[in-house]
Design a protein that fits this description.
The chain is α/β, with parallel strands linked by helices and 367 residues long. Helices cover 40% and strands 16% of the residues. It is built from 14 helices and 13 strands. The protein starts with 5 loop residues before the first strand and ends in a 5-residue tail after the last helix.
Length: 367
């Protein structure tokens, strides 16, 4: 009997953007090789994983990274993050022993990390081939916030060693520069595509069909603007997450009324996605042909490259925190809707990354 290759995925729990990158790649691999055995390690809720990743897979609950410590979807607790990295690396050998034990028990043929460097370091020590995949890495994000830290080089050294231990670090467009990686390989953008269900959504929400429907999603770390005090905009309807609660306004509706609509279908069906800079949100909007109104996150080291790509390839307008707080959005929305529509971007990176996985799992050799 032919042995079925086993792929082990180590997934960051820092928001849903890492799952948004990995899931289309795994689904593309499964289309080519449906028999591949799959294990996913991380701390995202299992229903969220199964809502994005097709087919059967095992789930291992285990946190191999934390990214940055957040105040909310926009702001980083810089001092707390630096302290957390010092504590994490102070327990490095114990954490590495734990991850090695987990990997040894799973006995995979290949590790894919997006982007826990602890998992890559454990795989290297166990001589398990590994690939990394992400538009950022934590060593460069940490440097972006803590460049003056006296121990920055010491903190980054094991991170960079782990990232460089991978056969390749796949960088889907748009990615931030990673000058200290010697194994970086650029690939196309990664995004999943939804279905346009707008007529059905209009009917179920009781809309006429001519309104501008704005889907509000500010990321996995909750940030709720003061919708109750926002001015009413003519022919604009705001579609908000269920955990934002009830808002006593006729122009504000909740996703809870559309529980059977996948998030990707909502993105594809709405006129505008109102969000923060993030890989998953930006590429999914651009690839589904949806306009983006986004709140600036100017200190996030990855933002300049995300924003530049979205501006070039999609339809987008950036607003500041003041407009988020006040709801003064008539002008930026008008400017966004006036832009000539650009064609949807083709998400070629998923198939490219799946090709790397297939070659590694089935012995075709690296590209």
């Amino acid at each position: 009997m032919t042995r079925v290759p086993h792929l082990y995925v180590a997934l960051s729990g820092h928001g849903f953007g890492h799952l948004a990158q990995v899931a289309p790649v795994l689904n593309a691999l499964r289309q080519r090789r449906p028999a591949v055995r799959l294990t996913v390690q991380g701390m995202l809720p299992e229903p969220v994983l199964r809502g994005r990743i097709a087919g059967e897979f095992a789930v291992v609950a285990g946190e191999a990274d934390f990214g940055m410590v957040m105040v909310d979807a926009l702001d980083v607790k810089v001092a707390d993050s630096l302290a957390a990295y010092r504590a994490f690396h102070g327990e490095w050998e114990a954490r590495l022993d734990w991850q090695e034990c987990v990997l040894r028990r799973a006995a995979p043929d290949l590790l894919l990390a997006d982007i826990p460097y602890l998992s890559l370091a454990a795989a290297a020590r166990l001589e398990i081939p590994a690939l990394a995949l992400c538009s950022l890495n934590w060593a460069d994000i940490l440097r972006g916030y803590c460049a003056d830290a006296s121990d920055l080089a010491a903190l980054r050294a094991p991170m960079l060693a782990a990232y460089n231990s991978a056969v390749a670090f796949l960088q889907p467009a748009p990615s931030m520069p990673m000058p200290d990686l010697n194994n970086a390989r650029p690939i196309g953008p990664i995004a999943a595509l939804g279905r346009n269900r707008r007529p059905e959504i209009d009917r179920r929400l009781g809309l006429r069909g001519g309104e501008t429907l704005v889907l509000m999603g500010l990321g996995g770390v909750n940030l709720r603007p003061p919708l109750e005090t926002w001015p009413t905009l003519t022919d604009v309807c705001w579609l908000i997450p269920p955990d934002w609660g009830q808002v006593a306004r006729s122009d504000v509706r909740s996703w809870v009324e559309l529980t059977d609509c996948a998030m990707l279908d909502l993105i594809r069906s709405c006129d505008v996605l109102f969000t923060k800079p993030g890989y998953g949100a930006f590429t999914e909007a651009a690839c589904n042909g949806t306009r983006v109104l986004y709140v600036g996150r100017d200190d996030w080291p990855e933002e300049p490259w995300l924003s530049r790509w979205l501006t070039e390839r999609g339809n987008a307008v950036k607003i500041d925190r003041r407009r988020l707080a006040s709801g003064d959005l008539a002008e930026p929305l008008r400017a966004l809707l006036a832009q000539p529509a650009k064609p949807p971007v083709m998400p070629t990176g998923a198939v490219e990354a799946a090709g790397w996985l297939e070659r590694s799992l089935y012995g075709f050799g690296p590209r």
